[in-house]
Amino acid sequence: MDRRIQKSKQAIMDAFMTLILEKDLENITISEIAEKANVNRGTIYLHFADKYDLRDKCLDNYLIQLTKACIHDHTLEKITSKSSLIRIFEHLEVNYKFYSAMLSNKESPVFRKRMKEIFKEGLLDGLDLSEEKASKEISVEFLVSAGVGVLEWWIYNSKPYPTPIIVEQLWQLFNSIECNSL
């Protein structure tokens, strides 16, 4: 891809992210994004169908980074490995402003759903669902909902516990559930 195109696209995404930290998506206009990105409206429409498409692309970008946080030595670890949990929370800390904005405004249901899909995929990849399928599917749904709920709580409450403590607590909870049902 042409470097100028990449720069324009990145400027648009950066401008959008700056604006989403300030106000809800409904109150953001394409003109505001264009002005902040120092591009014209037509340039935005070359890359994105509308502000919702732009939001989705930004979400995808951060969620891809979150997925990569689980990758160690070019292998995807089970989402329930302790080192994977540490990297997830470290990623959340580094990108705290973004996740805080996404989880505390009207966009949170869209974002939460996509985050749950990623975690569910990670858990399902690490489990054998051939035996007691219903029980394991319910367990996975429970773990994912609980895990995303804790992530959301941690961010919403301004990271009340440091990463090592929150990871240790989650690890103990996951292990107690896994020993009893997975």
Give an overview in words.
The protein is mostly helical and 182 residues long. It has 9 helices and 2 strands, in the order ααααββααααα. The chain has a two-stranded antiparallel sheet. Helix 4 crosses helix 5 (82-94). The relative contact order is 0.10. The model has no long low-confidence stretch (mean pLDDT 84).
DSSP helix fraction = over 70%
What order do the strands of the largest sheet run in, or round the barrel if closed? Answer: 1-2
Number of domains: 2
Mean pLDDT comes to 84
Distance between the termini: 45 Å
Question: What composes the largest sheet?
Answer: 2 strands, antiparallel
Tally of separate helices? 9
Spatial extent as radius of gyration? 18 Å
Spans of at least 5 consecutive residues with low confidence: none
Shape: elongated
Query: How do the helices and strands follow one another from N- to C-terminus?
Result: HHHHEEHHHHH
Strand coverage percent: under 5%
Q: Classify the secondary structure makeup into a structural class.
A: mainly alpha
Quick one: how many beta strands?
2
GO molecular function: DNA binding
Pfam families: TetR_C_8, TetR_N
Domain HTH tetR-type: 6-66
DNA-binding region: 29-48
